[in-house]
Amino acid sequence: MSKKIILLSLIMLYALFAFSVQLSTYDNNHYDKKIELKNATKAEPKAVLFMVDITSPAATVINPLPFEPEVWVMNTASETAVNYWIRLSIKDALTNQLKYRDSLLVVDSLYSTDDTTLAFPSFAPVYLTQYYAVAEVWMDTTTGIDTMFFSTYDADAMVSVYYSPATEITSMTNYVPVADFSNNGTQSISFYAHCDIYENGQKAYSDSVLITDLASANTQGISFATFYAPHYPGASTVYFYTNMKHDVNRGNDTLSYDIKIIGPYWTNLDPATSTSTQWAGRCVDSEGKIYVVSGLNSSTLINLVQVYDTINGWSTLTSVPTMRFTPACAVIDSKLIVIDGGDMSFNAVHATEIYDLRTSTWGTGTLSPVAMIGAGGGVVNEKMYILGGAPNTAIFTGMYYAYEYDVRADTVGGTPWRTLSTYSPGHGTLLGSPFYGNPGETQYAYITGDYQGYHDFFQYEPAADTVGGTPWTTLTATPADVGGKDPSIVTKNGNVYVIGGDISGDWGGTYSAMAYQYDFENDEWDDIGFVLNQGVEGNVVGLIGDVLYAHGGTTGSSAINPAPFEKYRLLSGYGDVYAPYIVSTSPYNRQVNVSLDKIVKVAFSEPVDTFSWMDAIVNPDPGLLMMFFNETLDSLFIFHDDFKYNQTYYIDFDVFYDSLGYRSIVKSVPYTIGFATGPTGVNDKAGAYDFSLQSMNLIAKPNSNFDFMLYSPSKEKISIEIYSLMGNKIADLSLNEAKVGLNKVSWNLKNSNNEKVSSGIYFFKINNSKNSLNGKLIIAR
Questions:
Q1: Pick from 151, 186, 220: which residue ends a domain?
Q2: Taking every annotated instance into account, which residue ranges of this chain make up the domain SbsA Ig-like (predicted)?
Q3: Are 307 and 319 in contact (CB under 8 A)?
C-alpha cells in the first residue's frame, strides 16, 4: 500500500471520529450550537414529512424582552427521521429586513408519529415592531413549514361601519360621507381616518381626519367634509380606510360601498312647432342640427323633414319625395341622404333620395343592392354603413344585410355601394337600434336590439373588413331594462349611449325611460343615472354639444301627440366634435372656500379663437359677474367679487361661433360647469384661485377690440369706465340698460376723443347697483 493511500485513509478515519463526537452548526450570527448524536450510523430515510409549529412565542403580542424561540416538530411519515435540519427566520414584517436566523442539524432519531420541541438561541425583539417568523424543517428538500406574525404592540385601527345615504343621491345633491372608526387592540392609538370617492373611474374627492388617543374597544364616528355637487351620474364608489403604520391587522382597514348618482330628469321643451313622429329617420349634422325625416304620425306615414337647432328652434325643409319609416339618414358634404325604409304594409321601400342643403332641392342616388326596412348602423369616415334590416317580415326567417354607401362615389360611372361581410346572430335585427347619422367621429358602427326584443350588441369595424379580417365583434348585450325594439343609439367622443326602447319587443308594452353608456374597457353597460320623463320607443335622440335632445316616439300603435320633447345636459363637459371640449375645471373637488376674490377656471382642449360671442345663465343669481379668456385662448375665467358662502353655482353657457368661416353659418355649443363655495372662515384648498381680478394681466391685442363679457342678473345700468395709469378717465363704455344674461361690451382701444390709446397699463371699473369689479388691462402693441 502506498504512503498516499495510507495517509488518505487516516484522514477519513479522523473525520468520521470527529463527526461521531460533535456537530457544529453555523448561522448568520456566527452562533454555534452543539447537539449530542445518537444512532449516527443509521441509514438516512428516503421520504419523511413533518408537522411544524412555532410554539414560542406563544402569543401574537409579547413584551419587548429577550426570549428563546421554540419549534415543535412531529414525524408524520412511516419512516424514521434522522439527520434533519430546522431553520428559524424572523423578519421585520413592515420592512422585510432579516432580524434573526438560526439553523440546527438534528441527528437524533425521530420515529414515526413521534414529536419533539427544540429551543433556539435567544432573540431580543424591539418595541413597536411587527415580526414575521418562518420555521422550516427539511432533509434533502423542505418537508415542513410554519409561519406566524407576532408584535411588541397591539394596535389595531379599523373601519367598523359606514353609513350609506338615507335618501337618493342626485347629481345636484351635496353629500357628507360618514363612518365609524374603532380601536380593536388593547392600546390607545392615534391615527388618520380617510375617505376617497371615485366618480366615473376618477378620484373626485379626498378628505382625512385625525383621531387622537382612541382608547381600547372605543369607537369614534367621523363626518367628513361635504362632497359638493354636481356629481357625475352613474355609479360612484366611496372608500373609508386607515393606514396606521403599526397596525397588526390590515384586513379590517378598509370598507367601501357604491352610490348610485341619479341625474336630474330631462327638461321638457315646447314641441308646439314640431310634428309628432315615431320610427322617423334621424341624423345630426356637423352644424349641430337634428334632422327628423318622414316616419309615422297617428299610424299614417308623413313626408315632413323637420330640423331643430338651438338658435332657431324647429323648422321644415322641402318634403321628402317618398314617405317611409326607419330610413337610414345622414348629412355628408351638405347633403341629406335618405335611403330605403318601410311602408305601411311592412314592405321595404327601395329609394335613395338626396337633398342638397345649399340649393334646397331633392335628387336621387343609386339604389341599394337590396331594399331594406328597419336597418341600423352609422357613419364612419363620411361613409354610411347600413347593417341589418330585411325586405319585409321575412326577417323572422333570418336574413341579414351589411352594405357601405359612399355618396362621394355616387356619380356617373361610379360605384357607391359595396357589399360587406355579414354576421349571423341567430335572429333578425329588424327595428333594432336605428341608423344613427352622427358626424363620423368613430371608427366603428354599432347595432343592437330587434323587433322581437333581443338585446344583442354588435360592433362593426370597416377597416377590418378585408380578406381574413374580423370586422364583427359581439359585445355585452344591453341590460334588460333598456333596448329591445327600436331604442335610440348615440355615439359621441368614443362613447356609445342606448336610450329607451320596447324592452320585450313585439309591442310588449314595457317601454324604457333608461339610458346606459357602454364601458369599452370592462365590456359592460353603466347606468348613467338619468331617465326620460316618459318611457318610449321609436323616438329621435340627437346630441348637440353636450346636450341630448329627445323628440317623439310611441308607446303603442301611433306616435305620442303632442310629441314628448326634452333635453338633458351631460355633466361630462364634452362639446361638439368640431368645437373644443372642457378638459378640466378649477377649483379641485368643485369647491371654492371663499375668503378672498375668486376666479373659476375652465380649461379647454384647444384654443378657442373661433369664438365670436357667448351667452350664459347663472343659477342662483350671483350678482354682477365677468368672464374672459386668457391670452392663449384655451381657458375661460369666471370672476365675481362676492360669491356667497355655502352655495352651489351652476353656469350654463353657450358658445356661438362661425363654424365654416362664412360669418353666416353660426352654430351654438352648450356647456355646463358647476362649483360650490365652502363655509366661511375655512382656508382655501389647493386648486382654488386665490387672487383678485386686479392681479390678472388682461392683454388687449393691437388693432383689435377688447371684449368685456359681463353677466347681469337684471335689466339695469352697468357703469364701465377706463382709467389711465395716472388715474384719468379716458373712456366710458357704460350700458344704460343691460340685458339679463351675458352682455358683450367691446372697447376699440380709443379714448373719448376717438384717438388710439398708447401701449401701457390701464385700469377699468365696472359697477351696477350692488356690485363692483375692478381690474388691470395691458395694451401691448
A1: 151
A2: 577-654
A3: no
Measured distance CA(178)–CA(734) in Å, rounded: 51
- The structural domain count of the chain equals 4
Predicted pLDDT of residue 40: 35
How wide is the angle at C-alpha 139 spanned by C-alphas 136 and 145, nearest 5°?
A: 20
Phi, psi (deg, nearest 5) at residue 12: -65, -40
Half-sphere CA count of 772, side-chain side, radius 13 A = 6
End-to-end CA distance of the chain: 112
Residues of the chain with pLDDT under 50: 1-46, 397-398, 571-597, 609-612, 657-669, 680-697
- Sheet strand arrangement including 488-492: 488-492, 495-499, 515-519, 524-527
Rounded Cα distance between 264 and 568, Å, is 8
Other beta carbons within 10 Å of 146: 19
- Cell digits of residue 245: 403604520
Q: Among residues 119, 151, 183, which one ends one of the domains?
A: 151
Any domain includes 575: no
Whole-number Å distance between alpha carbons of 231 and 234:
9
Alpha carbon distance 478, 481 (integer Å): 8
Phi, psi of 186 (to 5 degrees): -105, -5
Report residue 404 as a C-alpha cell.
Answer: 357601405
Tracing cell 365670436 back to the chain, one arrives at 612
Neighbour count for residue 59 (Cβ, 10 Å): 10
DSSP 674-730: EEEE--TTPPPPTT-B---GGGSEEEEPTTS-EEEEEEESSS--BEEEEE-TTS-EE
Which of helix, strand or coil describes residue 754?
A: coil
Given the DSSP bridges, would you call strands 666-677 and 591-592 parallel, antiparallel or unpaired? parallel
Mean per-residue pLDDT of the chain? 78
DSSP structural state of residue 563: P
What pLDDT sits at residue 407? Answer: 96
CB atoms within 10 A of CB 334: 14
197: Cα separation from own chain's centroid: 12
Give the DSSP letter of residue 438.
Answer: -
Stated as kind and residue range, the H or E segment containing 550 is strand 547-551
Same-domain status, 329 and 274 = yes
The candidate with the shortest Cα–Cα distance to 259, out of 177, 144, 338, is: 177
**Which of 82, 263, 95, 307 is CA-nearest to residue 168?**
263
Give the C-alpha separation, 705 to 779, whole Å: 11
513 and 411 share a domain?
yes
Q: How many helices (DSSP H) and strands (DSSP E) are in the chain?
A: 1, 55
**SS3 category, 222:** strand
| Structural domain harbouring 494 | 267-569
For residue 334, give the nearest of 290, 285, 294, 298 by alpha carbon. Answer: 285
DSSP letter at 248? S
Q: Distance between CA atoms of 425 and 429, rounded to whole angstroms?
A: 9
Preceding peptide of 434 cis, ω within 30°: no
In order of 1, 2, 3, 250, the CA distances from 9 in angstroms are 11, 11, 10, 61
Q: What is the DSSP letter of 645?
A: T
> Residue 188 to residues 42, 182, 238, 578: CA-CA distances in angstroms?
57, 11, 27, 61
C-alpha–C-alpha distance, residues 609 and 629, integer Å: 10
Which pLDDT value is given to residue 61?
A: 86
